[in-house]
Amino acid sequence: MRNVWIAAIAAFGLLVSPAAAQDAKTVVGNASRAMGVDSLNSIHYYGVAANGQLGQNNNSSQPWPVTAANDYVRAIDFTQRTSRATWQNYAVPVTGGAAALAPGQQVINAQSPWAQQIELYITPWGFLKAAATNTATVKAQTLDGKRYNVVTVTGSAKSPGGQPYRVVGYINRDTNMVDKVQTWLDHEFYGDMLIDADYLYYRDNNGLKYPARIVQNRAGWPTFSMYVLGANANPANLQALMTPPAPAGRGGAAPGGAPAGGGRGAAAAAPTSEKLAEGVFRINGAYNALAVEMADYVVLFEPGPQNLERARAVINETKRVIPNKPIRYGVISHHHLDHTQGLAEAVAEGITIVTPAVNRAYLMSAMSAPRTLAPDTLSKSGKKPLVEGFTGDKRVFQDGTRTFEIHVIKGLPHADGLVIGWLPKEKLLVYADMFNLPTDAAPVPNPPVVGTQVFAANMERLSLDPERIMSVHSLNPDRLTSRAELLKSLGR
Fold it and tell me: How far apart are CA 120 and CA 434, in angstroms?
């Protein structure tokens, strides 16, 4: 949604007692004076940062993976509700090989959706400005042994479910510094996702107080952290700091936008399907799924990719090509967000999600989370998630019709608990994320792609000899591949 915080909460009509309102005004005023916010129209700060990739951890119980954001510079113009941040990434590609330098940029303006606008108002200075110009409430609270005035600002900026968004600031009663700001954002996978920003070790620059350390968590782990080396109030070169470079020419990259904050996926086109064998269908799309018909039910490999709409389309197409049988099991290839963001739709359908035990707690937590900001099919259904976390390296679906084997891949850096599906009778194998074959004109990758090597090693370990290999991510050109083509990409 495109509501702007200051404008949106200017007339939200929150009912509070005059005494409470006065208390909040006094608390915010004291903090604003102490932090040098009263005369602050813009700010420039810089340092060394790191961006965490939400939902892309290598193990579902560990923090999000981070990429260094060196030479991080951010400028905010509070009068125009705009922000621009730039940095330099030096990272190793997921396919392996040498690290490469690449610029990064985040631009937020008054027309940006709320999921990006909140990046202005969860800063300590932006929070105080919003709280000073709008109705707010305050309560006393002790957290980790420290006494806080907790100020809540709730505006008319509303979530898809009609719930007003709120931002909560923790003002230290001893220092008058904003130590923490929290808000909640609707997300298709995580539900009402908590965004928690901590501001530590304040410093002073001619009356402007700024934290030397910033840590922002989303869904429990850091998605942004920064060591702030310096900050300036009302910088004279603000226009230069706020002006993005001209778009790159042909072959170059255009300036990047703000990172995805919310989890409202883009609309997905209705899928088509392709019959691969009797009772076996590839459900086509940007992310493919595999529907396997058993005697009394259906197993769906990759039931919740991309977003809720894509998951619903996959389920509907599966029902069309295999009618009159329930989709009883949904096997996820792995836990990464792009493969599971629509999983709530499958849970609402009553599908049991099948995954190695390492992922069960993570999926149960996400699928059990409140979904009040954007009520979806799952929250309206009242159903509880059914997640089967199998132990060992193999899960087999078998009846008189066919056998469908699920195997855990060994030795893959990309994700613990990643699985492949194997239909021995049809000699069909389905996988995700381990490799994307080069075109015929491209040379053999050197060094070889790590995921391709791991895939080949696991085929040998499991004595699998597929005639056809289906990728969840469509190959270029789109096709099923073969063992021979895979080995050719390794120079074998």
Answer: 37
Q: CA distances (Å), 339 to each of 114, 278, 418, 431, in order?
A: 25, 26, 11, 12
Phi–psi pair at 335, nearest 5 degrees: -85, -5
- Flag whether 372 is in a domain: yes
Does 491 score more than 90 pLDDT? no
Residues 238 and 318 reside in one and the same domain:
no
104 vs 85: CA distance, rounded Å: 8
Residue 315: domain span: 273-488
Clarify whether residues 284 and 433 are in a common domain: yes
Output 202 or 10, whichever has higher pLDDT.
Answer: 202
**What is the domain-level CATH number for residue 233?**
2.50.20
Q: Would you mind telling me the total number of residues written for the chain in this entry? A: 492
Asked if residue 380 lies in contact with residue 357, where contact means CB atoms within 8 angstroms, the answer is no
The rounded mean pLDDT for the chain is: 90
The CATH number of whichever domain residue 463 belongs to comes to 3.60.15.10
- By C-alpha distance, which of 122, 125, 81, 116 is closest to 256? 116
Burial category of 256 from C-beta neighbours within 10 Å (exposed 0-12, middle 13-18, buried 19 and up): middle
Number of domain units in the chain: 2
The 10s digit of each residue's pLDDT in 29-72 is: 999 999 999 999 999 999 999 999 999 999 999 999 999 999 99
Q: How far apart are CA 304 and CA 65, in angstroms?
A: 22
Residue 407, both tokens: 């195997």
Assigned domain for 259 exists: no
Give pLDDT tens digits for 308-339.
Answer: 999 999 999 999 999 999 999 999 999 999 99
Q: Are residues 180 and 234 in the same domain?
A: yes
Percent of the chain clearing pLDDT 70 (strictly above): 90
Distance CA 22, CA 111 (A): 32
Average pLDDT over residues 464-471: 97
b/e map 71-102, b = 16+ CB within 10 Å? ebebbbbbeebbbbbbbebeeeeeeeeeeeee
Domain annotation covers residue 253: no
Q: Are residues 231 and 280 in the same domain?
A: no
